[in-house]
Design goal:
Layout lengths: L2 H9 L2 H27 L16 E2 L2 E2 L14
Antiparallel strand pairs: 1-2
């Protein structure tokens, strides 16, 4: 039995399955367009968040700090 057949059993018919796929695709496409619209605004600047400060003690025991990772040269 294929994945499509399982989904048809869940929704009832092939037409309902296609309708559900179209609705889900439309929702995802609208979210993508909205994200692109926000990123296209001139007053929006992406920022690189700093890392959290390392904890020196966990449960009363001293732990070694993680190795420093160099930040990327270019952030977009």
């Amino acid at each position: 039995m294929e994945f499509k057949d399982d989904l048809i059993k869940q929704v009832g018919s092939i037409e309902r399955l296609y309708a559900q796929i179209i609705m889900d695709t439309r929702d995802e496409l609208q979210a993508f367009i909205q994200a692109c619209s926000v990123l296209n605004c001139e007053n929006v600047c992406p920022v690189t968040l700093s890392t959290k400060p390392e904890r020196k003690f966990i449960n009363g025991r001293k732990v070694q700090p993680p190795e420093k990772v160099h930040p990327p040269l270019l952030t977009i």
